[in-house]
Write a structure and sequence with these properties.
The chain has about 280 residues and is an alpha/beta fold. About 35% of the residues lie in helices and about 10% in strands. A 4-stranded mixed β-sheet has the order 1-2-3-4. The protein binds zinc ion. Keywords: Signal.
Length: about 280
Amino acid sequence: MGKAETLGLGFRLVVVLVVGCLCREAVGSGFVKYETGSGVVEGKLNVHLVAHSHDDVGWLKTVDQYYVGSNNSIQGACVENTLDSVVESLVRDPNRKFVFAEMAFFQRWWLTQSPGIQALVRKLVDAGQLEFVNGGWCMHDEATTHYIDMIDQTTLGHRAIKAQFNKTPRAGWQIDPFGHSAVQAYLLTAELGFDSVHFARIDYQDRAKRKEDKSLEVIWRGSKTFGSSSQIFANAFPVHYNPPPGFHFEVFEDVVPVQIHNENLKHHVKTNGWQPWRSCCKKI
Ligand SMILES: [Zn+2]
């Protein structure tokens, strides 16, 4: 694991940039038009930002340590704080969105909330501001994991979401798993009812070639038996799942926050081209 990755694990706030309309071609069943928040503005480049976190259910620390934020000398991470602050931020601005994946953390947090906070969170989920992606107990690996375990842990998480929110996750959010298996593609994505699967880990030469070929996004047909009936839209990230260059959200990083607004945007674009945030990010 590289240093950047280690720093980023605690609260990996990654910005997914989806340029243009989010409408995708329907793949298999279960397609639902995406809610694009405040809507698409005609005549402008529309960029949709979806904030999310990925939290390992045990890696350098135990699941308990990750949740409460103890043992931070090993790694700065506190998922409880993440969930507390996300809810507050979503309530503050109804145009904000957040997605969360790992039910091992969410369930622990949810069960300790007051009825008032739970009602608030239900409203956020119903309004589409907070969405569960993947929704398994953890984000399972695919390289060596037995498919029974993948089914089992995904079922556990999905049952909780269904019982508490009457929702079923739609996005296969496999951004950190090592290895990618056909079972994940056809059984735990298409057959499960997801309409897409997204991942970051891919061989670096494969990624480079796909960037060149513009084939990072493909329709993945994972089962010869089921063929096109269980194919799925698959998306490999152009870079890892860290924030894009210049966007730093980690509390321990040696940068100041991005500060771009209508008044200074033109100046920054003129000065720094496609990375207008550059001059803002050096430590003062
Ligand atoms: Zn991970």
